[in-house]
Design goal:
Layout lengths: L1 E6 L4 H12 L3 E8 L11 E5 L9 H4 L4 E4 L5 H26 L4 E5 L11 H14 L5 E6 L2 E3 L7 H14 L6 E3 H11 L6 E6 H8 L5
Parallel strand pairs: 1-2, 1-4, 2-3, 4-5, 5-6, 6-9, 7-8
Keywords: Acetylation, Disulfide bond, NADP
GO molecular function: NAD binding; oxidoreductase activity, acting on the aldehyde or oxo group of donors, NAD or NADP as acceptor
Pfam families: NAD_binding_10
Amino acid sequence: MSTAFVVGATGAVGSELVKLLAESTKFSKVVLLARRSVDAATGDKFVQKTVDFDKLEEHSEDVRDLDVAFCALGTTRGKSGADGFYKVDHDYVMSAAKLAKENGIKQFVLVSSGGADETSRFLYMKTKGEVEKEIGELNFDKFIIMRPGLIETKRQEFRLGESVASVLMKPLKLFSNRFSSSATEIAQAMINATQTEETGKHIWDNVKIIEEAKKYSA
């Protein structure tokens, strides 16, 4: 069985990931690095650590020699402002990646976004692209990038744009799985990605995420 740590465990995808890891027979130990307690983390396999993401490097002992790092950190410009968004989606994500690399972790699984592009003039896509590139330069044995479309989920906070898009996307999903995926599908794909034999950097787009999520194995 594998061991892992998770950052972003309280978000839409991260919380679903924790639920699935609780049920998974593939993981014997999961360390959660979060600002607050994660209610879904039930069972002896979970170790919860309350962290200050500005000082994430202080948690080396908590993650040393684990097998996998799962990163589902993210916020929005509307919620946190441009500077706050960049701090979370770039700086904190990179801190997690460096923590993993420096402590012998071989696999890094990242939730990014469809359309991620370091050359984009849009802050969101540009930041996602920069992070993908910079983590790639750390040369993990396996680096899997999840690039979902619209994420279907019930968030605690209301996001008008996502709500409108969700309504518009539902008819399209009947004909194509290119446009959206559920938080649960993304989380399941993240777990399944760690069980493949492939090495190096791989990008899973929305179609791949949905296909791989169907290959469920506890």
